[in-house]
Write the structure tokens for this entry.
Amino acid sequence: MIIDSFRPLAAIAVSLLAAALIMLVGNKVKPNVREGITLIAAVIKAALVFSMVPAVLAGNEFVCRPWEIVDGISLAFRTDAAGMVFACIASGLWIVTSIYSIGYMRGHHEKNQTGYFAAFAVCLSSAIGIAFAANLITFFIFYEMLTIATYPLVAHYRNDAAKASGRKYLAYTLISGQIFFAAIVAIYVIYGTLEFTPGGFIGAGSLPAGIMLVLFIMMIGGGAVKAGVMPLHGWLPSAMVAPTPVSALLHAVAVVKAGAFCVLRVVCYVFGPEAAGWCGGGKLLSWLAVCTIILSSCIAMRKDNLKARLAFSTIGQLSYIVLGISVLAPYSILGAAFHIVAHAFLKITLFMCAGAIFVTTHLSEISTMGGLAKRMPVTATCFTVASLGIAGLPLLAGFVSKMNIIRGAFLAGQPLFVATLVAAALLALSYLIPVVRIFFGKEVSSPVLNEGGEASKAMLIPIIITAVVSFILGVMPNAALHLYDFAAMAAEAIAQGGGPIA
Amino acid sequence: MNHIPVLIILFPLCGAVLCPLISFLNPAWGKRAVVGTLFASFALSVIQLAGIVQTGEPVHYWMGGWAPPYGIEFVIDGVNGIIIVLVAFIGAFTSLFSSPFEEANPNHRFKSAGYYSILCFLVIGLLGLSSTGDAFNLYVFMEIVALSGYGLIAIGEEKGPIAAFRYLLTGTIGACMYLMGVGFLYSATGTLNMADLAIKLKEIDNTHIIILAMACMIVGFGIKMALFPLHGWQPPAHSYAHPAADPMIAGVMIKIPAYGMMRFFFCIFEETHPAAEVVFNIIGVMAVCGILFGSLKALRYDKYNKILAYSSIGQVGYIALGISLGNFYGLVGAVLHILSHAFMKTGLFYTSAALKYKFGIHYTDELGQIYRKMPVTGTAMVALSLSMIGLPPFAGFFSKWYLALGAIQNGQYFYVAVLIVSSLLSAIYFFRIFERLFMGEEKQLEDHYPAAEHGRKEVPLRMIIPVVIAAVMVVLLGLGNTFIVNNVLEITVMEVFLG
């Protein structure tokens, strides 16, 4: 059933308004008030998104078509199952990240916090817009907004390193974005529609395979850059110069997940599994993903900087999602959609731990963190939990998603992908477990680790929350928000290839 | 008879002529005469457009009641109706914007009055240029625009007179070419009324004379709109013109000839004429070269106005590209880009003038942390620049969308590639400005006019308002583009241009 409602639009608008408010009054009011605005907006946004959960779960969709944005195409928002998955984690984790940001930014005495919190709010608006966009043009508008809003966050420190990584980030995202744009126009001219349709609206054989493959590549590039699929991942490790909450946001919630979500929308809702497989795009993408998983894991092992290691781990895990999608089998799509959730909670925990360690001890290299568990036992424990989750151990969120992806690949008769996926899980263990071992090692490698205690509560509580949630999601994937059900609904709709729901 | 079309021009004409006289008695009232009449003209233009949208019929106004083809006729349809609104709107706000400059400079009252008067004449010329339905009358208005343009450029910065002289030489050639083209058409048809020309040209077998006329028109309009490779006069003119009049010169003055070109090639010549295809290809090549040249050249400069001027050469190429596509979406894109680029460029030149007024800043490397001192100007700069790059949800993106749509419909994929490359190139130079704006080293800056400013943080309200309006319009025009496309452009473009 279709429910006409402004709730999707309101969920997007609330953080835009918050951003405007922060920009206007941010420097005039006390920091507490400013962060209060962020938190209130985050809570309202999450409430709006979560309030739609029951109805969507029952098979309804909230649709909002405020006005025509270009001749013949409306600005359109629709809360389908896949969109809900992304929207729920983005809005849910915004609250957590905001609390954490407050602790981090104050603990670290950062400058330019007003612009920081405003840009953060715009990013979240864009993320929700991306989640709820019902057609490609709406999607593209928010996708580009996300690119621009993330730029000030990447370049936050405003020094030469920040400038360089900002430029790199823009070069990757703007170029791919413009190519994406050209492909959207071409698809509109050829097919006369841009509406996301489960199972795709492009028929296999409706264009010569070569041309369709070119279109596929042009479109997928937009997503692949943000999802860090090699060889388009270059911006991601250098974006590490940004403050840690930004890295957490970039690498767990908004940007990379928007990229993965873009891949999902393009493959499953524009081309559809059939056409994507027919033109050879699916195969191409899955091989790229396989290479990325293996290469990034190998690179991650050699990184001594904790954030850099996590960045390469992100690249690998994102390609897990991409691989799940490009196998084009229902179970693997389910797994991929759920891995958006699982990886979000796990990786945000890891990044927040890294940030907490950095703010309290000013250590950023893994080799200097020996014996960290003595000073920061909670942080070290949460880090361990999340590491095991990333590796895909049972009882943690990563297991649910990875198992489904492997199951899908197995049923689709792709033993090689199964092997890659299993190997990747072991590789993930191999680069994260050594870190855990160093944390819990007897030898204390830095004098700062002998005194003092944990990070401030504003940082510690979010870490505990996300670690606990990733455990809960591993045991009961359907807890609270029924995200597993949503992922399953999305995969089912794609497999059945129903017509446009709106 | 409905006299609005002529009143739109007559009001500012009175203002322009009376301004020096009133200034003799009281300089403040002289200025107010210009500002007031321009705002009146803006109000009338809105009423006129509302009428056209309501009835769906173009307005025909016969000067002095003389019927065409002998009398001069004003024809206002949806497309030029909205362009007239644009010109009057920007004209009115630019006159408002100018006043702090004129007050801060201890000029003789007549010099100041002369400035307002010339600015007003520029607006009059542009309004007439867009309204008229008579080929020779168009020439007259074109000359009014050019003459006032020379004046405004010459009273600008140090190199202003040289830039003005250069424009004088080139501009005169352009006007002559146009006049020659009209001469050829007149010799073949014996009429100067555009509608009449269109009918009579259909019966002419002599293709040579039409081709000759078309060639003259391309050069004539091409020079006036600074289309590559006829753009030589434009960068110095835009860089050295009077800072307060620059928004009008850079933002609007080069767009209206583009509209004139559109009108000639779609309303007077038949777009299906065998020669037209060649002409469109030539315009297309000029457009592509201009887009790439302008964007590449803009990368080389540090002077804010120079960057903007070269970017204009590229952006005018967008409009020409739309014309050369010759299909519905191409033309919609071109008209929309006339509107959106007018606001973007005018807005950016407003910010440039504001920077000059406040701190005497000319170069982008002086911009370090300026957003702390001038938050409104800084924010507007960001919004307008993003629109220039063509990023959603700003207006520049949507005109690019229509142009790309038109190009792909015609199967000209190369043009889409050019649009993309140009967007990316402009991203480079605008983001470089952002880097300097937000991350550059803070410079010790002194108020340029300390006496007038009394330590105020931003520029005066009369300058802030136009800046903000330009930035807001860029957003509104972007999000509401279908309102214009569906209500105004659709019918006109289909019937008048492609009918």
Chain A touches chain B through 31 residues (CB under 8 Å). The CA atoms of residues 24 and 114 of chain A lie 9 Å apart. Chain A has one domain: 2-494. The first strand of chain A starts at residue 2 and ends at 4.
